[in-house]
Design brief:
The complex is a heterodimer. By secondary structure, chain A is mainly α. Chain A is built from eight helices and no strands. Chain B is built from nine helices and six strands. In chain B, a hairpin with a 2-residue loop joins strand 2 and strand 3. Chains A and B meet through helix 1, helix 2, helix 3, helix 5 and helix 6 of A and helix 1, helix 3, helix 4 and helix 7 of B.
Chain lengths: 180, 251
């Protein structure tokens, strides 16, 4: 049985380790929610929940996958709440706020414009996927194994493979101008 | 192998998850089946688009400050040995023997360095995302170094001033976790390479002479320790080219 001191140590260590994933979590949250404000709220709520559940994290397991699971579950509960109470604000009103790509290192203006266009098209294609399809593509991009993705989604590993395949097919249809 | 199995295996092959026999079977099928070969090419292109072109959103600084305030934590991982009673010493010794095995050692190092690698990539993304130019947009190390030194609580050692292959683009100061880091930015064609130099105290940085090379979120990352300082090199360049720059930097 873990002592109170053990739990405090775990929490302190986890708090610091999790801070290093702030950008990764925020990026995931941006693509889940589609906007900056919701993404910030999601990450902050994820941190709060992770803090409360720090003693449940098993050292040696994948911290990133654990955090993604918390973030995704948080997002699902927020989405459910919003669906049942339209006064809170629905996601159908959300617009994607695509930030400009960095330009200072690119000498060729035309090439830079093209890169921005490609980036915006890919972002839009990703946002057009269902929540679940987008989630699975993003988790795969983050380098999570199929086992970790299955743990995040709460489904069998075999299901991850087929869902990922379908999600990528849908993306390719969206991006048919870029992929053969 | 039929077409359905082949198409499900395409991504596994890309990720290096297939064993030798399955990989060979897939290669044979792709050689014989034009449809699946086209699918393979499209899948690889999609991966490249997603990894290289999909915008990566860095967390706003204000959010990070709020999170840090929420968890004012120490940098060191909890020391289990400190809390273990004496009879568990035997277990610790056994673990030490395992750690001697190279594969275990590398896994352990990569695991401990995980947050460092993540933060190095975060800093690289912040540099890329800066709307304004670098703090010191100069290719002259004699301009960059004094500017950096005046803004840090340590003297950064940047042993490479840039050349025709890796021109110096400038410098900046960024935060690395809880401390300031000197940033030197090099170019390689249209790629950007970020070098971070910071104080290693309290961080599980690789030991001197044992650099760590890894990949995270599509970026290649190399961490090493020299001159009593911690170094991180990050870029979307392939590992071989990043290694060339690391060699020039003494990493």
């Amino acid at each position: 049985m873990a002592s109170r001191g053990d739990e405090e140590d775990s929490t302190r260590w986890l708090g610091q380790a999790v801070l290093a994933y702030a950008d990764t979590l925020y990026n995931f949250a941006r693509y889940l929610s589609g906007n900056r404000m919701d993404a910030e709220d999601l990450v902050q709520e994820t941190y709060a929940r992770a803090l409360r559940a720090a003693h449940q994290f098993e050292p040696g397991t994948n911290l990133k996958a654990w955090l993604f699971r918390i973030l995704r579950n948080t997002w699902i509960s927020v989405a459910r709440r919003r669906r049942s109470d339209p006064t809170i604000g629905g996601f159908d009103t959300v617009t994607s706020d695509v930030e400009p790509e960095p330009t200072w290192f690119c000498d060729d203006v035309e090439l830079d414009r093209l890169r921005k266009r490609v980036a915006a098209d890919i972002e839009q294609a990703l946002l057009a996927l269902s929540d679940e399809a987008r989630t699975i593509v993003l988790l795969d991009l983050e380098g999570l194994t199929e086992t970790d993705v299955a743990a995040v989604l709460g489904c069998p590993v075999g299901t991850v493979k087929s869902r990922l395949s379908r999600a990528r097919q849908a993306l390719r249809r969206q991006l048919k101008d870029y992929t053969p | 192998m039929d077409c359905r199995a082949a198409r499900l295996a395409l991504l596994d092959e890309q990720r290096g998850r297939l064993d030798g026999a399955a990989s060979a079977a897939l290669a044979t099928h792709l050689h014989e089946c034009g449809g699946c070969a086209r699918d393979d090419a499209a899948e690889r292109l999609l991966t490249e688009l997603l990894e290289r072109q999909l915008p990566q959103h860095a967390a706003p600084l204000a959010l990070k400050r709020r999170l840090a305030a929420q968890w004012p934590a120490r940098l060191d991982a909890p020391s289990r040995a400190r809390r273990w009673p004496g009879w568990r010493g035997a277990l610790a010794a056994a673990a030490l023997v395992l750690a001697i095995l190279g594969v275990w050692a590398s896994l352990f190092r990569a695991d401990r360095a995980g947050p460092l690698v993540a933060e190095a990539v975060n800093d690289h993304l912040r540099i890329l995302a800066r709307a304004e130019r670098l703090d010191v947009p100069s290719g002259d190390m004699h301009t960059v170094r004094p500017w950096l030194t005046g803004r840090l609580d340590f003297a950064p050692v940047v042993p490479f001033a840039g050349d025709a292959d890796f021109p110096l683009r400038g410098g900046a100061v960024e935060y690395f976790l809880d401390r300031r880091a000197a940033v030197a930015v090099y170019g390689r064609r249209l790629h950007v390479v970020t070098l971070l130099v910071t104080r290693p105290d309290g961080l599980p940085w690789p030991d001197a002479g044992r650099p760590l090379t890894t990949r995270f979120r599509g970026f290649n990352v190399r961490l090493w320790r020299a001159h009593g300082l911690a170094y991180a090199l990050v870029s979307d360049l392939d590992a071989a080219e990043l290694g060339q720059l690391a060699a020039r930097l003494g990493g």
